[in-house]
Design goal:
- The chain is mostly beta strands.
- The chain has a single domain, classed as Jelly Rolls.
- The chain contains no helices and 10 strands.
- The strands form 3 sheets. A 4-stranded antiparallel β-sheet has the order 1-10-4-7, with no helix packed on it.
- It is globular.
């Protein structure tokens, strides 16, 4: 089953999880919204934004990042993938497949 949602980064400079609770995914595709003002950043709990040393993946508006299906026994957990942004209220679009 394919699902999708948008994440709004309300506090630029503060990492937030894609979901508030466990959400297993067999694969994930993320896109920085084309209407964003700045970049968004994908990583772990300590992900920073471009105003400090970035330790994740930077996505400019319209850029995508995928976590492919790998035949792993443990699926991705969307609650352990974090996002940050340069600008308040920028968005990340997420589409994923349930394992």
């Amino acid at each position: 089953m394919v699902r999708n949602f948008n994440v709004t980064i309300t506090a630029a400079g503060t990492a937030q999880p894609l979901t508030a609770s466990r959400a297993p995914a067999g694969w994930v595709l993320m896109q920085a919204a084309k209407g964003n003002t700045g970049s968004v950043y994908i990583g772990g709990t300590g992900i920073t934004n471009g105003t400090t040393t970035t330790n994740g993946i930077e996505l400019a508006k319209g850029d995508t990042l995928s976590f492919p299906a790998m035949g792993i026994t443990e699926p991705y957990d969307l609650a352990t993938i974090f996002v940050n942004a340069d600008t308040n209220n920028d968005k990340l679009r997420v589409i994923y497949g349930r394992p």
